[in-house]
């Protein structure tokens, strides 16, 4: 898909495209964050960075598995 096609889709469905692009961004950040934290070794102490990474992942999964289907049910 070309850039013009993406812009056309965005104008037609701005919320859906924003959610999809946001999901891709979150997935990439979780992937990169995991490798950064793995390169630093095992967590010592409380492991705040690992907890933050897990928290973002949990929020992402809950959004797509609970909130989005609930929203779709209320529409239809």
Structural class by helix and strand composition = mainly alpha
User: Radius of gyration in whole Å, from Cα?
Assistant: 17 Å
What shape does the CA trace take? flat
Q: Name the average pLDDT.
A: 89
> Strand-residue fraction?
under 5%
The total of helices stands at 3
* Order of helical and strand elements: HHH
Poorly predicted tracts of residues: none
> What percent of the residues sit in helical stretches (DSSP H or I)?
over 70%
Find the count of extended strands (DSSP E, 2+ residues): 0
Report the span from N to C terminus.
30 Å
Sheet with most strands: none
Give a summary of the structure in a few sentences.
The chain is mainly α. It is built from 3 helices and no strands.
Task: Write up this protein.
The protein is mostly helical and 76 residues long. Helices cover 84% and strands 0% of the residues. It has 3 helices and no strands. It has helices at 3-12, 14-39, 48-75. It is flat. The two termini are 30 Å apart.
What labels describe this entry?
flat; 3 helices; 84% helix; mainly alpha
Secondary structure elements and pairings:
Blueprint: H1 3-12, H2 14-39, H3 48-75
